[in-house]
């Protein structure tokens, strides 16, 4: 049975799909309604793949420094894109990857806002000192619900359901060694293996009930934890995390925990750090846009601060690499940052 939600009129500034985010609702740390059966969780307000491509093509036409490349196709034939700001190949380079899991959508929305932001001139000069690569919506088929298995039990209403898996029901973030799926193969062949990349942030969404020190978190972060990673790569990953933590945790709406992740190298955070010597950070933001498990889905009143969390993360890390401040970043906060735990259900 597909669950029907009460559909409410969306008011205020949180209308997505091509219009800008004016001012996010600022909630206390990690707040924002959970899915409880009567909030709006409607996928129609999230950009479709076509709308994203349209947005990127318009930005490319407007922005001199931006190049748009097609790096491959999904199982169902959707084009996968790389957004590239590369004035000087000698500069340090950061890659942002979004939506390996198709139901984790706000990081893509945030990265598109950031792309627009890079074209406004407010970051003038920054792109002279850092190269920025963005691969948005890697799992475009899962994001569009265009898959070879049933999404009947999924929670969200709207014009489509969204799933973690690609069209063949494979978790792309377990395919970074074998690269059997066309999405992961495209990422490795035409991005990771094609550019000299120093840093990467892999952007995801987690469930809604994680907390740290008694408060629900707005997200959680983690560096590569496989023992095969070069210690210097791991150290720089921790510095990347320090930039993100200082940027986000100081905000009224921001509260980050440490993600409790494993050491498997099939996962991008670990495998890419080992294979390419790229310093990686996993960022898991609160709440998914759709899932068959209701407790993972977050009401869309939280969209504003989560999109802002993405924009701030990208902005802060790009700036810290451009001005070199990342290289003197203290990593000791990691020793005291608690792992997030799951709030017991009532
Ligand atoms: Zn994910």
Automatic annotation (TrEMBL):
Needed co-factor(s): Zn(2+)
Active site: 284 (proton donor/acceptor)
GO molecular function terms attached to this record: carboxypeptidase activity
Residue intervals of the Peptidase M14 domain: 45-325
InterPro entries in the record: CARBOXYPEPT_ZN_1, Peptidase_M14
Statement: the UniProt record of this protein carries the keyword Chloroplast: no
Keywords: Carboxypeptidase, Hydrolase, Metal-binding, Metalloprotease, Protease, Signal, Zinc
Signal peptide start-end: 1-28
Annotated PANTHER family: PROTEASE FAMILY M14 CARBOXYPEPTIDASE A,B, SLL0236 PROTEIN
Family: Belongs to the peptidase M14 family.
Name of the protein this chain belongs to: M14 family zinc carboxypeptidase
Native organism: Virgibacillus tibetensis
């Amino acid at each position: 049975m597909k669950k029907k939600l009460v559909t409410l009129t969306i008011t205020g500034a949180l209308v997505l799909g091509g219009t800008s985010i004016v001012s996010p609702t600022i909630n206390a740390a990690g707040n924002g309604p959970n899915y409880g059966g009567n909030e709006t969780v409607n996928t129609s307000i999230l950009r479709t793949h076509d709308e994203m491509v349209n947005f990127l093509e318009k930005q490319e036409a407007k922005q001199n420094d931006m190049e748009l490349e097609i790096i491959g196709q999904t199982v169902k034939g959707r084009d996968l894109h790389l957004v590239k700001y590369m004035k000087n190949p000698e500069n340090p380079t950061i890659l942002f990857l979004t939506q390996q899991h198709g139901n984790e959508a706000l990081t893509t929305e945030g990265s598109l806002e950031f792309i627009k932001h890079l074209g406004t001139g407010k970051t003038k000069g920054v792109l002279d000192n850092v190269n920025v690569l963005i691969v948005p919506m890697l799992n475009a088929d899962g994001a569009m619900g265009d898959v070879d298995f049933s999404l009947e039990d999924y929670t969200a209403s709207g014009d489509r359901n969204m799933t973690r898996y690609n069209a063949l029901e494979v978790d792309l973030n377990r395919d970074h060694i074998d690269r059997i799926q066309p999405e992961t193969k495209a990422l490795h062949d035409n991005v990771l293996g094609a550019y000299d990349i120093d840093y990467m942030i892999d952007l995801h969404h987690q469930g809604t009930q994680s907390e740290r020190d008694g408060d629900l978190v707005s997200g959680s972060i983690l560096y590569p934890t496989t023992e095969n990673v070069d210690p210097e790569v791991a150290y720089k990953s921790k510095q990347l995390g320090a930039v993100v933590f200082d940027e986000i945790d100081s905000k009224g709406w921001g509260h980050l925990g440490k993600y409790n992740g494993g050491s498997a190298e099939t996962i991008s955070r670990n495998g890419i750090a080992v294979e390419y010597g790229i310093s990686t950070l996993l960022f898991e933001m609160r709440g998914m846009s759709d899932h068959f498990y209701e407790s993972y889905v977050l009401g869309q009143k939280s969209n504003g601060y989560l999109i802002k969390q993405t924009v701030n993360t990208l902005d802060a890390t790009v700036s810290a690499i451009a001005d070199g401040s990342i290289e003197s970043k203290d990593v000791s906060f990691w020793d005291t940052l608690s792992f997030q735990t799951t709030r017991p259900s009532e």
